[in-house]
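User: Need the bound-state model for pyridoxal-5'-phosphate:
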Amino acid sequence: MSAKISINKTSVSSLSKLDFDNIPFGKVFTDHMYLADYENGEWKDFRIVPVDFMPTHPGNLAWHYGQAIFEGMKATRDADGNALLFRPEQHSIRLNESAHRMCMPELPEDIFLDAVHTLVNLEKNWIPQQEGSALYIRPLMYATDATIGVRPSDTYRFLIFCMPVGPYYPKPVSLLVSREYVRAVKGGVGEAKTAGNYAASLYPALLAKKQGYDQMMWVDAIEHKWVQEVGTMNIFFKINGEIITPATDGAILKGITRKSVIDIFRDHGYTVTERPISIDEVEEAYEKGILEEVFGSGTAAVISEVERIKVDDKIIHLDASKFVASKFAKNTINQLRIRKIEDKFNWLVVAEDRSVPVTA
Ligand SMILES: *Cc1c(COP(=O)(O)O)cnc(C)c1O
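Assistant: Bound-state model below.
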């Protein structure tokens, strides 16, 4: 099934106003967005229109009870000017996993991919060319019923917009471990990429900022010691030559960068172990002098090195300039994305105009 996407182009592009060497993060939107609506059990009205405000009824269910899920992905450009998508089918799969948990309708993969392909192809002149820069793509699905009452909505909107971004988190980050606040608990919605997880994290993140830390490092909600993840990233530790990342357990977001980084490391000969890791083990490793690297992985930052972690009264200091594995992973992903190195995993897909359905 492939449905036609109608395109209504803007008469005034704002592309000429963009300074590609100085892109403020999260503030610049491209000209167009993609919209689709779900009603009477089916997705319809596939369309690309100029980015604009969308009128919403005050009773909109998403606002009151939080049925909202999203994705974050990136497009880059190769030397031939092609727009390249990075593992888009993985994002479709995860969007549908989030939808399932939040009682929202699945979006068939072909509708998702046709939308991403067509919109990114249309906006490809917005893709910054410098290594580490990209076009950030934000798919979003939310409830649209205008009725008050706690139940799943019958209607939804799916949309995608894009934003050019420069390199994210260029500096190493500092993390605060809380034994008090939690992000997610097994059985909850931590594995879904849903808006509420972020709402819940804002207050603790603010406390971390007040203490001089960039983000919280989340530990589990029961024993308060098993490391989960960080802000918008999954976390990796390199201890005595071995790379360890917490095993996904139902409360950790299954990052696509996490998965990719694991493949890249293993392919390069590193030992990567996915298992529960406690913050006490990290502390012990630090004291023994075998905690070699700590870094986060996520679409936005790709890899973000960690230079300081506060756990209870102790502070772990790391010299991120000496990290080797993290830089290897970051360079590999960034260079792969612009085809500077071979895409041996076949993760890149050239974005194409699919506004006219391909007839078999
Ligand atoms: C999106 C996200 C990540 C990273 O996932 P990627 O697919 O690698 O971008 C990690 N943690 C949370 C909480 C997230 O929302």
